[in-house]
């Protein structure tokens, strides 16, 4: 083992476990660092409190005069908890969260100072935004962007900083972040779903889209991670031979959690409790050193904020435990990557989950209405959904025989399939009383008992119904959930608006009863959306062929997938709902293409460096040892030496052959990069990186990994997979 690797491993064995102070009850900690309803009641005037609550419930603007009261109360609360600074906390399109801290402290001009935080500073800020991706929305001479308070996501305290969740928009009002379109989409789906829910219950006045994410991640000891330039800079390994033992035995999944890891998880959970992130589940995942954490679901906007926040604090807390958190979708070849399942549903202000079958036929008709509309929306917009999860890192996962493929399909289980098959037979036009009774009793009425036994869960499906919610499984582990959630809620909003129009037209024109009209429209939707339903093995080759026959898209790479973001269909969808305009969509398209090309460029550079600065010199050194050995043998055996050095000579040649391939591969890759870099058009450049640069990665890696197997372990400088994955 090389000295570098040995020293890193030695450090790990000397690690002392971090002591965690557990409170008697976690529930006592919950939300203690959040400016929530309880703290607002305590710190705000009655008028200010009522204003905030109304803004949260109805989106009503907060009075400027009142905002001064709110900011003062918020400041007092934060200072009482030790805060010195405040920041607008937002989610620019870099994918990371952003913050710029300002002190409460202000001088008064007479030599004294006070703590101050005015309503203006709460409501709006103007960070120097010129370095955030804008996709050409802002010219550099007019680089202003501003952040504005989002009262629907409560302010929180992190360390000694009061963080205020905000949207981030350009001076001309275009969204520059993930939150702005999400809020618009959530509002659209609220309106559309409320008017449909009123068919079944007049008392519904608000529908909330809910999200419960499950976050997968790897934990690698920080000393080991630091020895790998690829993990450090790209968040994934660009080379490394598979270990003799990987995940074949499935002995890691749900296995007992290693004590060092458990200490980290507990520490993280305690911080989450204080921040009001309701984490509930933790377990080992399939791959060695891979884990998962999941909270109780929340309202969509808050859940997205909490996921962004947690991705940040996971790394911060890991420092204390000497771990590096790896969120990348595919950090290690040959073993499972990470995803972020997005469990999604809709709930009414009357306390009903619209995707949970009920106890009466009427409730179940409501369930079926939303269920079938979702299938129709996914069917009609599968390509856009795929675009919503596209990234350079997620490309490694989708279609890699372990994660849902790049094809979007919906799994609903055999029993619901039967229900839909029955509904498909509903008579065209008005239903006879007999048929209605039959439907209500034997088809719709039977759903709850059916679902209780519906335990078969197809893990290979990208979009699966799991009893009372859909689970979008193809979302990448590094992704900001805001993007897929904006798309999902928008396509459903549009679908529900269409549904309402069609049903109302039948009621009015054909004088149908409401139920008849609903059954008639649903029947057509079931027929039209059939192609999106797939119950079989989503990882298999047979499905790829079948999906092609069905006309479903299979966009394997990000540049290809992103095209759907700027199609005419997408443009009109987002325009009609006022979620995003043409400029915003085009900007996002360009930002994502640029991000893609840059990431491949960076990985290409890292791989080139490692191959030439680490791998080739090491291989040459080992080859020299062999040459020396052969020369020694020659000295001893003279003419006879060949008989004794055949193997050595073979390895010497093998090494030369691999070195030659690596070198020519790196040279060709650099040339391909040069060509790609000259391309002005962002889309063409992304395609050049995808089609002309990236293919060299596998070739270079192949030869490096072969050398890892040949070269003396004592010389090999890069920490090996077995050390990265099995040391803790
Ligand atoms: P798994 O998918 O791992 O088997 P579960 O199905 O029990 O686990 O739940 C997974 C996630 O689904 C949890 O994070 C939970 O918060 C979320 N979830 C449950 N109900 C809903 C809902 N109505 N809306 C959104 N998310 C939900
Ligand atoms: Mg799940």
Care to describe what's here?
This protein starts with a helix and ends with a helix. The chain has 728 residues and is an alpha+beta fold. Strand 17 and strand 18 (470-472) form a beta hairpin. Helix 3 packs across helix 4 (64-80) and helix 16 (482-509) packs across helix 17. The longest helix is centred in the last third of the chain and has 56 residues, at 582-637. The strands form 3 sheets. Strands 10, 11, 12, 13, 14, 15, 16, 17 and 18 form a 9-stranded mixed beta sheet that branches. The chain has 3 domains: 31-174, Roll (Ubiquitin-like (UB roll)), CATH 3.10.20.70; 186-236 and 246-580, Glutamine synthetase/guanido kinase, catalytic domain (Creatine Kinase, Chain A, domain 2); 594-726, Four Helix Bundle (Hemerythrin (Met), subunit A) (Up-down Bundle), CATH 1.20.120.1560. It is built from 25 helices and 18 strands. The chain binds adenosine-5'-diphosphate (ADP) and magnesium ion (MG). Residues 214, 341, 471 line the site of magnesium ion.
Write the layout of secondary structure elements.
Layout lengths: L2 H11 L23 H7 L2 H13 L5 H17 L4 E6 L7 E2 L2 E2 L1 E3 L5 E3 L3 H5 E2 L19 E5 L6 E3 L2 E10 L8 H19 L9 E15 H5 L2 H6 L24 H16 L4 E6 L5 E6 L2 E2 H21 L2 E4 L13 E9 L12 H20 L1 H6 L22 E2 L2 H11 L8 H12 L2 H7 L9 E3 L4 E3 L9 H28 L4 H15 L12 H10 L7 H5 L5 H10 L4 H56 L3 H38 L3 H12 L1 H16 L10 H6 L2
Parallel strand pairs: 1-9, 16-17
Antiparallel strand pairs: 1-2, 1-3, 4-5, 6-7, 7-9, 8-9, 10-12, 10-13, 10-14, 10-15, 11-12, 15-18, 17-18
Helix pairs in contact: 3-4, 6-10, 6-16, 9-10, 11-16, 11-17, 13-17, 16-17, 16-20, 21-22, 21-23, 21-24, 22-23, 22-24
Family: Belongs to the glutamine synthetase family.
Protein name: Glutamine synthetase
GO molecular function: glutamine synthetase activity
């Amino acid at each position: 083992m090389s000295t570098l690797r040995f020293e890193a491993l030695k450090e790990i064995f000397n690690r002392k476990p971090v002591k965690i102070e557990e409170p008697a009850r976690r529930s006592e900690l919950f939300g203690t660092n959040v400016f929530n309803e309880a703290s607002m009641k305590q710190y705000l005037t009655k008028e200010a409190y009522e204003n905030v609550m109304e803004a949260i419930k109805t989106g009503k603007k907060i009075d400027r005069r009142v905002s001064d009261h709110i900011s003062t109360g918020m400041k007092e609360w934060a200072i009482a908890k030790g805060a010195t600074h405040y920041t607008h906390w937002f989610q620019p399109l870099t994918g990371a969260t952003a913050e710029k801290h300002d002190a409460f402290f202000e001088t008064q001009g007479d030599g004294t100072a006070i703590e101050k935080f005015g309503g203006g500073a709460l409501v709006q800020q103007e960070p120097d935004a010129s370095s955030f991706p804008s996709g050409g929305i802002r010219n550099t001479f007019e680089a202003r962007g501003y952040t504005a308070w989002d009262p629907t996501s409560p302010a929180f305290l992190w360390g000694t900083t009061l963080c205020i969740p905000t949207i981030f928009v350009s001076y001309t009002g275009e969204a520059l972040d993930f939150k702005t379109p999400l809020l618009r989409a959530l509002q659209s789906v609220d309106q559309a779903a409320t008017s449909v829910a009123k068919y079944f219950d007049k008392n519904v006045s608000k529908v909330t889209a809910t999200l419960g994410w499950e976050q997968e991640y790897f934990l690698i000891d920080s000393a080991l991670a630091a020895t790998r330039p690829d993990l450090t800079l790209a968040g994934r390994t660009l080379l490394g031979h598979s270990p003799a033992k990987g995940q074949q035995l499935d002995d890691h999944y749900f296995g007992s959690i290693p004590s060092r890891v458990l200490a980290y998880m507990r520490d993280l959970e305690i911080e989450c409790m204080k921040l009001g992130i309701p984490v509930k589940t933790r377990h080992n995942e399939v791959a060695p050193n891979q884990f998962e954490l999941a909270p109780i679901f929340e309202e969509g906007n808050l859940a997205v904020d909490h996921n962004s926040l947690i991705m940040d604090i996971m790394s911060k807390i890991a420092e204390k435990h000497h771990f590096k958190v790896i969120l990348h979708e595919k950090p290690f070849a040959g073993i499972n990557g990470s995803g972020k399942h997005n469990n999604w549903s809709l709930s009414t202000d009357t306390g009903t989950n619209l995707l949970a079958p009920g106890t009466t036929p009427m409730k179940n008709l409501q369930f079926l209405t939303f269920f079938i509309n979702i299938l129709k929306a996914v069917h009609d917009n599968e390509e856009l959904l795929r675009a919503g999860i596209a990234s350079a890192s997620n490309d490694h996962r989708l279609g890699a025989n372990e994660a849902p493929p790049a094809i979007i399909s919906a799994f609903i289980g055999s029993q619901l399939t039967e229900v839909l098959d029955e509904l498909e037979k509903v008579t065209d036009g008005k239903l006879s009383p007999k048929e209605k009774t039959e439907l209500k009793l034997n088809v719709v009425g039977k759903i709850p008992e059916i679902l209780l036994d519906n335990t078969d869960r197809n893990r290979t499906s990208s979009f699966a119904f799991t009893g009372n919610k859909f689970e979008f499984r193809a979302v990448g582990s590094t992704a900001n959930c805001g993007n897929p959630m904006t798309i999902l809620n928008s396509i459903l909003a549009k679908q529900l608006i269409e549904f309402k129009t069609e049903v109302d037209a039948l009621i009015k024109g054909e004088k149908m009863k409401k139920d008849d009209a609903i059954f008639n429209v649903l029947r057509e939707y079931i027929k039209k959306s059939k192609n999106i339903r797939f119950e079989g093995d989503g990882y298999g080759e047979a499905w790829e062929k079948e999906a092609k026959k069905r006309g479903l898209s299979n966009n394997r790479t990000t540049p290809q997938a992103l095209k759907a973001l700027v199609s005419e269909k997408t443009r009109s969808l987002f325009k009609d709902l006022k979620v995003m305009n043409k400029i915003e969509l085009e900007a996002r398209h360009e930002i994502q293409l640029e991000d893609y090309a840059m990431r491949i460029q960076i990985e290409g550079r890292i791989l080139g460096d490692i191959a030439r600065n680490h791998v080739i010199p090491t291989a040459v050194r080992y080859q020299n040892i062999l040459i020396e050995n052969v020369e020694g043998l020659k000295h001893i055996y003279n003419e006879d030496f060949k008989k004794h050095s055949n193997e050595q000579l073979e390895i010497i040649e093998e090494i030369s052959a691999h070195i030659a391939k690596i070198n020519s591969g790196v040279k060709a890759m650099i040339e391909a990069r040069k060509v790609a870099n000259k391309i002005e058009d962002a889309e063409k450049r992304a395609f050049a990186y995808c089609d002309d640069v990236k293919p060299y990665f596998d070739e270079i890696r192949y030869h490096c990994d072969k050398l890892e197997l040949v070269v003396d372990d004592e010389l090999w400088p890069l920490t090996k997979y077995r050390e990265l994955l099995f040391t803790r």
